[in-house]
Structures are given as C-alpha cells and as structure tokens.
Amino acid sequence: MADSESLETVTEHERILQEVESTDTACVGPTLRSVYDDQPNAHRRFMEKLDVRIRNHDREIEKMCNFHHQGFVDAITELLKVRADAKKLMGQVSDTNRRLQDAGREVTAQTQEVIRCRVQQRNMATTVEKLQLCIPVLEMYSKLKEQLESKRYYSALKTMEQLENMYIPRVSQYRFCQIMAETLPKLREEIKDISMSDLKDFLESIRKHSDKIGETAMRQAQQHRTFNSAVQKQVTLSCTKPLYGLNGRTSLHHNGLSPEEDDTDDEVLTAQDLVDFSPVYRCLHIYTVLGDRETFENYYRKQRKKQARLVLQPQSNMHETVEGYRRYFNQIVGFFVVEDHILHATRGLVTRAFTDELWNMALSKIIAVLRTHSSYCTDPDLVLELKNLIVIFADTLQGYGFPVNRLFDLLFEVRDQYNETLLKKWALVFREIFEQDNYSPIPVENEEEYKAVISRFPFHDAEIQKQQFPKKLPMSQSVPQIYAQVKEFIYASLKFSESLHRSWTEIDDMLRKSTNLLLTRTLSSCLQNLIKKPHIGLTELVQIIINTTHLEQACKYLEDFITNITNVSPETVHTTRLYGLSTFKDARHAAEGEIYTKLNQKIDEFIQLADYEWCMLESDGRASGYLMDLINFLRSTFQVFTHLPNNSNDHASMSGKVAQTACMSACKHLATSLMQMLLDSELKQVTMGAVQQFNLDVIQCELFASSEPVPGFQGDTLQLAFIDLRQLLDLFMVWDWSTYLADYGQPTSKYLRVNPSTALALLEKRVFLQECLLLYRHLFLPHMNGCWMKDTGKKNNIFSQFRKNDRDKQKLIETVVKQLRSLVNGMSQHS
Q1: Any transmembrane segments, and where (predicted)?
Q2: How far is CA 233 from the centre of its chain?
C-alpha cells in the first residue's frame, strides 16, 4: 500500500515538473499550490525531486557548451585579422575626400551666384503673380462700395459673398485682405440694420393703410355679392318664385356700406396698389442671403401678432355708431388681406398654419368684442346695420380662404339681441297705442272709412256689414294699430334674416319664434300692465276683452302673412305655430279677473259709506241710501256687459259667462260684506230695529238679484248668494229658535244655511243689549217710580209686568245661547 502511494506521489511530482517546464511563468502559481494541497511533507519530496531535475539540466547545459567552444574561438581569431585591413581602408578614404574638396571650391562659388540670380527672378515672377491676384479683389471691393452707396444691398451682399468665397481666400495672407475681411461682417450688420429699418417703416405703413385696404376689399366683396344677388333674383323671377317686399319697399343697401360707397368708380384696387411690398421682399432676400431668415421670420411674425392685437382692440365707444364698427372691421380685413398677400407672394415668410393661428386668435377676440358691444346696443336699426357689416366682413374674409362659420353662429346671438331690441322698441309702441286709445268702438261714417279700417285689420262681420252708415265696429282703435305693428315687427325681424345663407324653412321658423316672443312676452306684458293700471275702469276693461277677442281671431291671418312671405307651407312637420291664442286668452282672463276685483273694490267703497244705528228702536221703513246707490251702480255696470262680442256662439257664451260670473261675484261679495258688517267683533250690541233696517237692505239686494240684472241665470240662482243672510235674519225676526234647534242638522231644515256659531255671535250681541236694558230698569226705574208714581199702583203693576216679561225673555235667550254653544262645541269636537 505504501509503495503504491509513493508511486502515485512520484508520478504526480513528475507531472507537476513537466507543467512547470512547459507552462508560462504567470500560470506557475496554481501548479505549485497543488504541491502544498497534497499529503504532508509532500513539498519536501517535491523539492528533492526538483533538485534532481535541476542537476540533470545543468549537466545537459555543460555538455552543450563543451560541444560549441571550439567554433567560438575560431570566430574571434578571424575578427582580429579583419581589423588591420579596416584601418588601412579608412586612411585611403580620407585622402580621397581631401583632394575632392579642394577641387570643388571654385564650382561652389559659381553655383552660389547662379542660385542668387535665380531667387531674384523667382521673386519677381511671384510678385507679378500676386499683384494679378490682388487687383480683382480690390476691384470687387470698389464695386461693393459703389453698390452700398447706391443702396443696392442685395447686390452688395452677393458681392461680399464672392469676395469671401472666391477672391479673399486667394490673397488672405496679406494684411489689407485681413482688414477687408474684418470689415465685411460690419457691412453686413449695417445692411441688416438698414433693411430692418425699412421693414419697420413697411409695418407702420400697412398699419396706417389697413383701414383703406379693408374698406376696398369689403367694397369689392359687396359688389361681387350684389352682382350674385341680382343674378339670383333674375333666376328666381324666371322660376316664378314669390319674392317679398318690405311693406312695398325694397332694400337696396343692407350691406353696411353707404350708397355713395357703392357708386364709386369701378377701378379695382388691390393691396399692391395701396401698399409697396418691396421693403419686405428686399428684407426677406437680405436675411435669406445672410443665413438669418429664421430670425427675420420670427421678428416679422412677432410684430404682426402685436399689430393684430392692436387692430383687434376696439374703441370704448364703438357701439355708439355704425362707423365705429365699420372702422373696426375695415382694419381687421386690411390686416388679413395683407397677410394673405404675404402668404402667397413669399415662400415661407408666413405659413398657412401661422395665418390660421392668427385668424383663430382674431376670431375669438372679434366674437368676444362683438358679443360685448352688441349687448350695449339698444337701437334695432344699429343692430341691423351691425349684422349687415358682419355679413360683408365674413363674406370678404371667406373669399380669402378664412373660415367664418363661427361668425355666422355669432349672428344667431346678434339676432337674439336684435329681437330683444325690437321687443323693447315695440313695447314702447304698444304702450303708446294703449295710452292713446279711447277704448270705445270705432265709428265709421262711410264706406271709405270702413274700407280703411278693414284694410289694416282683417275684420269680417256679416251683421255689421248689413248695417247702414254711420255704424260702429266693436273693437277700438288700438286693435288695427296693434295688428299693423305686429306685421311691421315681422318685417323688421325678416330684415335680419337676409344674407344669412339660411333656407326659407329656417327663416320661417325664425319669424314665427320672434313673433311668438312679441305676442307672448311683450304684448302680453303690455296688456297685463294696462289691465292693472288704476285709471282703467270697468268700461275700459270690457273693451279690452272685446279687443283681445278680435286680436285672437286675427292670429290665423298673421300665420298666413308669414306663410306668404316665406312660401313655407304651414302643414310642414316642423313649422312653429303662433301662440297668440293663449296670449290673448290670458289677457282676457286677467281683464275678467280685474273686472271682478274692481267690482268688489267698488262695492267695498259703498259699504264703507254705511252708517247703521245699531241701537235704533225702529227701522226707517226704507232701505239705506248707500245700498240703493250701490244697486243702481251695479245695474248700470252690468248693462256695459251687453257690449261684449256675441257675433258667434262661442263669443256669446263667453260674454254671458263673464257677465254672469261678474254678477255672481258681486252679489256674493256684497252678501259676505253685509254678513261681516253684522258680525263685526267691534259691534257689541244690535237692536231689533237695527235688524229690521238691515233686513230692508237685504230685501233690496234680493230684489236686485231677482230682477235678472244679467240674463242667463236659471231660477233663483243669483238670489242664493243672499240665502245665508236671509235665513239668519228670518231666524232673529221671527224668533223661531225652537224650530231651528229642533230641525238643526236636517236636510229639510228651514234654517239650514244658519251656522250655530254665526247665530250665537249675533245672539250674544242681543244678549249684551238685553242685559244693559235689565240693568237700566233695575237701577233707575225704581227710583223714577218712587219719585213720579208714588200713588199710582196701576202703573207699578205694569212695570212689574214688564220686568217679568224681560226676565222670561232673558231666560229664554240664555237657554238658546247655552244650546247654541253646545252645538258649536259639538261641531268643534267633531271636526
């Protein structure tokens, strides 16, 4: 076993030694490390093995040296022999060189002279050559100076470019060329400054001339639009399509431009005719040549943006006159006409994206400015002229390729503003018509006057036509005036719809909507305010009801009027209907309500004149004077209702209903007021004489109700308004408490309408009076009897009998009061 291990160790050491001998020195470390990683004392045996290997190699080296030693000795011997021959050869070379130097000294001197002559000749040729190179440079520089003096800057820049690229590089080594090269950048900057100054003058010039440029462009666009409109009208006439005239008038100048401006000469001016664009072209070329085109473009665009903001800034009082709007639009149009020319005349100075950006910025500002300033306009004519200016403005810029849809959208907002101003204007017109109206039927003396009325208002009544002249038409003067003004409003509203590039269907819808606003808001408000005015009496209110009835009937003619203008059939699916029917119905209902209110107020005024003596012992035997005056007033008032329109079954039923409602309302209010007067909490005592007097007044009211002041009531319907008062007074005058208490709550009760609380309240006033009488008799009558009737026993018996009757009656009243209170308490508990 030990022998095998020793053999393995020897074999491993042999392998390691071979690796050491054959491996690079840098990789010996890992090989040697394996010696120390093996068995203990292995390195000692490896060292022994290594020593043996070293000794073997030493012996091999020694053998090799002994083998080559003789050859080395022979080589050294031959080298010593050659050294002597070399010294001899060196001496011979030195001697030959000395003889050669002595022979070439004269040749060298002559050669130096030839060289000097040749150098002079060469220098002269070089000088001539350089002078020939410098002369063109100087000539070009002289040409540059002349070009600068004559302000031909673009040619000067080309000359500088030639100097720098072609001439100066040939003679750049000379000082004058260096000075010249240093001067050229300064000349370029000077040219840039001069051209920039020209550009600023150009910008200032176009800013001043933009107004004139825009005016010219808008006039040309208007002329083109007028020509197209004339052609379109001819085509329309040939197609027999109905045209409308504004109340027989044709509008020739709805363009925001005065007729004088349309009559100017036919010479077509362009932006080039009004502004010299050469400075901007020249400056663009100069900066392009200088390689600074981007700087120039940025500067130009920046300055134009600033000018755009200045142009878009309106004057504070622009909304006061149309001239302010015209100048504003002219400047904007002039600005963008110039930009459009620059866009197409130059390559890249401005781009379509830049002009679109400018236009979008301007469009937003324009819309904001117009929206603000148009809101200040209160004159519809000014708003209409503004609309025409906006249309021309939009058409002009659309011709230059700018999108203007938002401007036409703005026109719808302006249209709303225009309608608002029209509504305000017509509100004043309606108020003036109502103030000047006499609220009486229109008298017509002859056929001409009758035709004059029906020519302004569509009135048709067969019965009135059969009547002889003079006669009266049921409506007042305000009705045909209102109708005519509504038509004028439609004409005025139609003016705004012109040139909006809208279909007749849309125009028809606009007209109907604006007319609806006029009827439902303006006219309705004026009617409501008129009805509420204090000075409008019952007669005027009745006439207002008549007027609204006829205006309501005329609404269908207004629809036909709009249809004739737009030629749009009313049967179209989306056709808007006029809401005049509801407007006039509401006004009529308000007038009816005001009639009822004023009647009640008048009744209250008469009631306030009542002066009952509630402690009177006996009645006067006749009705109170205030009540008779009130009844006479009501009779005369209800006669007015016979004038309400009844030319048709509907109107007859309507007029009868108004009269009946007013009469019933007046009777109910009168009955309620009388009942409140009788039950007033401040009234503490009521005598039977006062009740009798009150009963006489109620009888007059009942007689008035039964006299049928307004026809159409069935039976005693109107008298039922006083039934509560009648049963209450009958109960007290007959003193039929036993029947009342026995039949209370029965449907067939004689005093069914007498409420226990009402009867109790009135009875307590009688109780209070009875107690006062008893106290009077108890305190004063005995004393009076003792003084005046000491010896009159018969009279004492009479007074005693009176006192007994009073006590019995008082007990009866107390009993009735207790029963009534129990009924009242029972009702409250039940409720």
Answers
A1: none
A2: 35
Q: State phi, psi for 444 to the nearest 5 degrees.
A: -125, 125
More confident residue, 106 or 256: 106
612: helix, strand or coil = coil
- Helix, strand, coil shares, percent, the chain, to 5: 80, 0, 20
3-state secondary structure 462-505: HHHHHCCCCEEECCCCHHHHHHHHHHHHHHHHHHHHCCCCCCHH
Of the candidates 270, 266, 262, 261, which has an alpha carbon nearest to the alpha carbon of residue 226?
A: 262
Length of the chain: 831
CB-CB contact of 659 with 641 (8 Å): yes
Name the token pair of 313.
């800034």
Quick check: 324 and 318 in contact, CB under 8 A? Answer: yes
Q: So what's the pLDDT on residue 773? A: 45
d(C-alpha 161, C-alpha 188), whole Å: 10
Query: Does residue 498 have a pLDDT over 50?
Result: yes
Selection from 510, 469, 519 nearest residue 492 by Cα: 510
Identify the residue whose tokens are 């900057």.
189
Write out pLDDT tens, residues 106-127: 888 888 888 989 998 889 888 8
Q: Give residue 256's pLDDT band: very low, low, confident or very high (50, 70, 90).
A: very low
Q: Which of 765, 775, 760 is nearest to 806 (CA)?
A: 775
Q: Which among 425, 422, 464 is positioned nearest to 442, based on CA atoms?
A: 464
Could you tell me which of 736, 732, 727, 721 has the C-alpha nearest to residue 754?
727
| Closest alpha carbon to 637 in 608, 676, 665, 677 | 665
**Tell me, what amino acid is at 213?**
I
As a whole number of angstroms, the distance between CA 217 and CA 271 comes to: 9
State pLDDT tens for residues 50-96.
888 888 888 888 888 888 888 888 888 888 787 777 778 888 888 88
CB pairs under 8 A, 24+ apart, for 237-244? 241/567, 242/564, 242/567, 244/494, 244/564, 244/565
DSSP assignment of 252-285: S--SSS-HHHHTS------HHHHS--HHHHHHHH
Helices 380-399 and 352-374, axial angle in degrees (round to 10): 180
How many CA atoms lie less than 13 Å away from 370 in the CB half-sphere?
Answer: 32
- DSSP at 444: E
Cβ contacts of residue 94 below 8 Å, gap of 6+?
A: none
CB-CB contact of 517 with 417 (8 Å): no
Reduced to 3 states (helix: H, G, I; strand: E, B; else coil), residue 687 is: coil
> Hey, which residues does 442 pair with through a beta bridge?
473
Q: What is the pLDDT of residue 1?
A: 52
Residue 252 has a CB neighbour count (10 Å cut-off) of: 9
For residues 718 and 658, give the distance between their C-alpha atoms in angstroms, rounded to a whole number: 14
Give the mean pLDDT of 132-150. Answer: 80
Q: Is 702 exposed, middle or buried (0-12, 13-18, 19+ CB in 10 A)?
A: buried
Q: Which residues pair with 443 in a beta bridge?
A: 472
Say if residues 470 and 537 touch (Cβ distance below 8 Å): no
Rounded distance, CA 758 to CA 43, Å?
145
CA–centroid distance for 364 within its chain: 13
One-letter amino acid at 453 equals V
